[in-house]
Amino acid sequence: MVGFDDDAAAQTCDPPLTTVAQPLGDMSALLLELLLHRIDAPDAEVETRVCDTRLVVRDSA
């Protein structure tokens, strides 16, 4: 079983849950950058960006 977000519950459940960790700080900074760009250029082409994730293997794998 695998979860998503790697929150504290994933570490404390029994067995500890394998999860996909997301870079929330990077995602927030990117969101702000894209939002400010959209405000400055509302007719600009829509951009798609992908942030790296990582698999955190615990005992549920």
From TrEMBL:
Protein name: Substrate-binding domain-containing protein
Start and end residues of each Transcriptional regulator LacI/GalR-like sensor domain: 2-60
Keyword Transcription recorded: yes
Keywords of the record: DNA-binding, Transcription, Transcription regulation
Source species: Blastococcus brunescens
Keyword DNA-binding among record annotations: yes
